[in-house]
Fold this sequence. Notes:
By secondary structure, the chain is α+β, with helices and mostly antiparallel strands. It has one domain. It has three helices and two strands; from the N terminus they run αααββ. Strands 1-2 form a two-stranded antiparallel ribbon. The longest helix has 7 residues, at 8-14. The radius of gyration is 14 Å and the shape is elongated. The model has no long low-confidence stretch (mean pLDDT 82).
Amino acid sequence: xxxxxxxxxxxxxxxxxxxxxxxxxxxxxxxxxxxxx
Length: 37
């Protein structure tokens, strides 16, 4: 929810916008997508 409410300039200033990564994996068996942490 914070991403919706936060000013976009905050993401730029904190460095999150340029370096954010949220890798996902696709399961070959069930065809679902999961976060790979």
